[in-house]
Design a protein that fits this description.
This protein has a single domain, classed as Up-down Bundle (3 helical TM bundles of succinate and fumarate reductases), CATH 1.20.1300. It has 5 helices and no strands. The protein is mainly alpha-helical and 128 residues long. Helix 4 packs antiparallel against helix 5. Pathway: Carbohydrate metabolism; tricarboxylic acid cycle. It is found in: Membrane.
Length: 128
C-alpha cells in the first residue's frame, strides 16, 4: 500500500536547486538600492541647487562633467533597478506568451530610457 502523503511535495534535490535560484538577482536589486541612496541624496541636493534658476541654470549645471557623469550614473542604476523590479513582478505573475512579450517590453522601455538619457547628455555637451 502506498501513501499519497508526499504527493506534491518537493524532492530534496529540487529544494536545493531553489535555495539558490534568484540569489544573484536578489543581491543585484539590493546592491542597486544601496548605490541609489547616495545618488538620490545627490539628486535632491542638485534639484534644490538648480531650483529657481530656470532652464539656463539647469543646462549649466548639467554641462559640468561631474554633474553629467552623476546624472548618467543615476539614470543607469535607476533604470537597471527598475528593470529588475519589473522583471520580478512579471516572472511572479505572468505565464506563457504574455510573460515573454512583457519581458520584451520591459527591455524595450529600459533601453529607451537609457538611450534618451545618453542622447540628452550627448547633445547637451555638444552645444558647450
Amino acid at each position: 500500500m502506498t501513501t499519497d502523503r508526499n504527493v506534491g511535495a518537493k524532492s530534496v534535490k529540487s529544494w536545493k536547486q531553489s535555495a539558490h535560484h534568484g540569489a544573484g538577482e536578489w543581491l543585484a536589486e539590493r546592491g542597486t538600492s544601496l548605490v541609489l541612496i547616495p545618488l538620490t541624496l545627490w539628486a535632491a541636493y542638485a534639484a534644490f541647487t538648480v531650483a529657481g534658476g530656470g532652464f539656463d541654470a539647469a543646462v549649466a549645471f548639467a554641462r559640468v562633467p561631474l554633474n553629467a557623469g552623476l546624472i548618467g550614473l543615476t539614470m543607469l542604476i535607476s533604470v537597471w533597478h527598475m528593470y529588475m523590479g519589473i522583471k520580478v513582478i512579471i516572472d511572479d505573475y505572468l505565464q506563457g506568451g504574455l510573460r515573454g512579450f512583457t519581458l520584451f517590453l520591459n527591455i524595450l522601455l529600459s533601453a529607451a530610457l537609457l538611450i534618451a538619457t545618453g542622447y540628452a547628455l550627448f547633445v547637451l555637451h555638444q552645444g558647450a
